[in-house]
Amino acid sequence: MAPNPLLINNSGWRRLSVGVIGGGIGGMSVAIALRRAGHDVTIYEKSDFAGEVGASVSCAANGTRWLHEWGVDVAKGDPVVLKKLINRDWKTGEPVSVYDLDDYEKRWGYVYNMFHRQYMHAMLKDSALGEDGEGQPARLIVNHRCRDIDLATNTITFENGAVSQHDLIVGADGIGSAVRGIIGIRPEKKPSDSSCLHANVDTEEAVRLGLVDYSQDSALEYWGGQEGKWDKIVLSPCNGGKLLSYYCFFPGRKGIIRRRPGGRRHLAIGKEIQPWRLWVHEPYPYLQQGSICLLGDAGHPMMPHQSQGACMAIEDAAALGILFDKKYFNGDVAQSLAVYEEVRLPRVTRVQAAAAKAAYNINERIGFSFNKDIPTYKVEDTKKVLTIEEMNAYDMYKDVEEKLAAKRGISYTDKYICGLPVGLELPSGITIGA
């Protein structure tokens, strides 16, 4: 096998001082990735994490693979390994569309995990800050809210008056990102046509009251969403099945769900009930400027209906970890961030668009998009649906190498296009490279 020209004479690597603004799931993930790549990472979090209410977080194989590659102790997150996606009839509760995940790990190499957000965060925080693992442990500084960044000197000024300077700055500060505005992005956004309430239900309490033990299904379960309507309930188990996390979607200008789906009695014992305001953001024109980049919701907020928000943040972190690794980083931060944008922006934009469609048509959701034989199946464009193959057959190393080769004027000969193998046949009828 011929040597990879990208890895030859790549002697410009240097250790960077990295400032990560935001200590959530995305911030902790990028701290792990860049720590492992050999860099000195400091995380600045605006809060002290006290008083947060947790919901469930989906982590499909395209996110789980990086947790394993980074050496994260996944068991600390107490996940539920999903076995099915189940869409039920709103009135009868009978399954309408089921996507079986029995062969999921065999096909894709990793399981589909469902975490409780606080447990997942603690798991990632341990990997980012702990002594175990590759590289120097990251540092976490709390109660530091970013006020401004001098783009010429990479100096961050915080609202408490503190300042710090770094070679690379990662804005992982969420949907209300300060960093995004500092680098000149003004979101084009509008309120979603749907609203959401979230509630947690203790499985033990539900069983004690004689209610259905949905934890036994180990499934993401949906009521409604088949008829082009906004009313929909989503149930995801987490904490090893001890907690059931409910998301209740309903038309934004109307009251809470009035019809009577199967999970209604569970919701009567819900706790930590929180409204979730949903916004639809148009894709941003760029993700980086100079030595600053955006990650996760700061760079590509999306509707939750593809269950890919956390995975996209984890993939962002993985891309930065690869690009700034000793194998690929030649010392040019701006070049590496330009490639980061070329790798990430098309993929996250694709998922954003698919998530917006799945908001009102569950057949557009990854998994259900494959179940074409059910009577109610209808999608906007069969050739544009997002499929499990597109998400999980993706090889980020190949995508990075293809884009990096073009940037450095090197011939790229591997049989991949944007990280997908040439010849891959998608259920949508598309063949990669055809």
TrEMBL record:
It holds the Pfam family FAD_binding_3. Gene3D superfamilies: FAD/NAD(P)-binding domain. GO terms for molecular function: FAD binding; monooxygenase activity. Residues 287-352 form the FAD-binding domain. It comes from the Eukaryota. Keywords: FAD, Flavoprotein, Monooxygenase, Oxidoreductase. Coiled coil: none annotated. Belongs to the paxM FAD-dependent monooxygenase family. This is FAD-binding domain-containing protein. It comes from Penicillium chermesinum.
